[in-house]
């Protein structure tokens, strides 16, 4: 019977792949965060909405 062996992947190569994956994940998360903050929305706010400067804390506290 033939034995199935695990692929012979050198440990440093595996470690480098994991580090690359972690680095790409971190860079993409930071890039998405930067774009969300820096880019202005394409559409203006809806006319039936109040400006974003006010908060909803008062409405939540009063139970309305």
UniProtKB/TrEMBL annotation:
Residues 1-38 form the signal peptide. Residues 42-64 are annotated as: Disordered. The keyword Signal applies. It comes from the Bacteria. The keyword Signal applies. Keywords: Signal. This is Uncharacterized protein. It comes from Streptomyces mauvecolor.
